[in-house]
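Let's study a protein:

___
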Amino acid sequence: MTVTRHPTRTSSLPQATLARAVLWAALAVNVLIVWVMFFAAPPSKNGVLAAGKFIGLHAALLIFLQLILVARVPWLDRRIGMDRLTSWHRWVGFTLFWALVTHAMLIVAGFSVLDKVSPFKTYAALAGVPASLIGMLALFLMMVAVAASIRAARRRVQYETWHAIHLVLYFALALALVHQFLEGTTFRTSALTTAYWWTLWVFAVGAFLTGRVIMPLWRNSRHQLRVAAVVPESDNTVSVHVTGRRLDEMPALAGQFMIWRFPGFRSWWQVNPFSLSAAPDGRSLRLTAKAVGTGSAGLRDLPVGTRVFAEGPYGAFTALQRTRETTLLIAGGIGVTPIRALLDDPTLTGDIVVLYRVHTEADAVLLAEMRAIAATRGARLHLLTGRTGPGNQPLSPDGLRALVPDITERDVYVCGPNAMTNAVLASLRTLGVPRRQVHAERFALAS
C-alpha cells in the first residue's frame, strides 16, 4: 500500500501570507466593482435611501465572505487554517449583523421621509412586502445566532448545543440571499449587474455546498470508516482507532484535525473536532480526546465496529507551513495530540526539539510513544512539570531561551490551552522569533 507523502515547504513566501493576500485582494476588487455599479446606477429617491442601499450592497458582500470563510475550501484551509478562518468568520459575522441593522434602519427612515409618515407605520407597511418581510426574518434569525456566539453565552452552553443553534445562521443567510434576489431596484439595474451578482451567488453557494455537503458525503461513502479499537490512555483520556477503505488516498496530514460523528451511538447533532494524534499511515486514523464534555466523555464507551462519519481533514498546523530547517514543537495538556502526530511525520525533517508542558507526569498522555519516537528520530523531548510560579516558568522568554538557545532560528509549533498558547506567543514575540516562523493551533471551530 502506497501512502501519499507531501513535501515539506520551506519557501521564502509563507503559504499563509499568500492565501491571505489572495483572499483580501479578491474582496477589495469586489468592493471596487460594487462601488462602480452603485454610482453608475440611477439615483435613489433620497439620500437616506441611497445610504441604506449602499450599506446593503456591502452587507451582501459580507454574506458571500461569510460563506467562503466557512466553506472549508482546501486551498484556504491548508494555508490559513480553520482556527484563523473561524476567528475571521466570527468578526465578519458581527460586522455583517450591524451592517444589516444599519441597512434596515436607513431603509425605514428613508421611506418614512419619502412618504411623510412615522417610522413605525413605514415599518408595518414594509412588513407587508414579501421581499422586506423575508429580510426582516433573516435579521431576526441572525440576532439569535449572534446572541449565541457572544462569549458569555458560549461559556454557558455545551459545544453540541451551540453548534445546533449556530446552524440557524445559515438559514438566515439563505433568507438574506432570497431578499437580495427579490429586491430588484439595486441588484438588477443592468444585465452586467445581474450577471455579477449571479456569479457571486453561484460561486459562494457552490463552494459552501461542495465543501460542507458534497465532499464529506463523497469521502465517507468512499472510505467507509469504522471504529477499530478504543484504548484508554489515562483516567480521563481515550484514543479511538478508525479504519476504512482506501485510507492511503485520504489527503490527511500530520497536525490536522477532523470533525467526528458516530451515528448510531450518538445523535447526528453531537459532533466534535478532534486532532489526529498519530501521523496518517494509509491504514488507520487515530484521535485522542480528553473527557471535557458529554461528547468526548462518551467516547470511552464506543463499541468496536461503530460507523464513523468524519469531515475533513482540516487545518494548516502542518509541515507545509515550515520556513526553516529546524523545528520546535510545544504542547500543553491535550494539545499534545497534533504535536505527537507532527513528531512522527516523516516530512518534518531536520533537528526537532519538543517541549511538553503538564502539571504532573501522570497528566502526560502519549508520553511513552513520544519518547520512543524522539529516540528513533534523534529529537530532544523535555517534559515540563509543576505549577507555574517563581522558580518554575519554563515557557517564559528566559525559560524558552534556556531550553532552546537557537529558538529564533526555528519554526515553532504551539498547541495547548488558550492561556498557555497566549503566554508562549507572548514569549516568542519578546524573544524576537519572526512571526512567519510561528504556527499556533487553537481549539476553535465555526460551523
Notes: The chain has a mean pLDDT of 87.
